Amino acid sequence: MHCPFCRHPDSRVIDSRTADDGLSIRRRRQCPECGRRFTTTETASLTVIKRSGVVEPFSREKVMSGVRKACQGRPVTEADLAVLAQQVEESVRSSGIAQFDANEIGLAILPHLRKLDEVAYLRFASVYQAFESLADFDSAIEELRAHPNEPAARGARRDTEQGE
What we know:
The chain is α+β, with helices and mostly antiparallel strands. It folds into two domains: about 30 residues; about 100 residues. About 40% of the residues lie in helices and about 20% in strands. The strands form two sheets. A three-stranded antiparallel beta sheet has the order 1-2-3, with no helix packed on it. A hairpin with a 6-residue loop joins strand 2 and strand 3. Helix 1 packs across helix 2 and helix 3 packs antiparallel against helix 4. The protein is elongated. It starts with 11 loop residues before the first strand and ends in an 18-residue tail after the last helix. The C terminus is likely disordered. Keywords: ATP-binding, DNA-binding, Metal-binding, Nucleotide-binding, Repressor, Transcription, Transcription regulation, Zinc, Zinc-finger. It comes from Leucobacter chromiiresistens. Negatively regulates transcription of bacterial ribonucleotide reductase nrd genes and operons by binding to NrdR-boxes. GO terms for molecular function: ATP binding; DNA binding; zinc ion binding.
């Protein structure tokens, strides 16, 4: 790590602490050349591969905006959406993989959205899983009735991707 003051190519870590609920590490460093101290923040990067092949960093805001339409008119607050986005990020990070397809992010959203609001879940799933008929809605509703208070069943998902 280069010193931001004198550009010396090395520094010594004085103190390390977790930040952002354990998602990053804050380090206090000291330059052995000029003796000045500075702070760095380290995070493990999460990237998303879109269908077009473009790779971009994971964004909680994009998760929130993707789910916001499904929650329109429902008793879901911005704080609820922020918590959902955090839960989705935690679930994908817990896998230990640093790069995900956009489709996998959508699959990670479904169980959290189902817990938050079942109507919003159906709306999101209908677009994400490309429902084509009333039968698709019927089977999704039957799944909700058969397994109340459970995350979305894996067998009820399709392998199609949501448009981006």
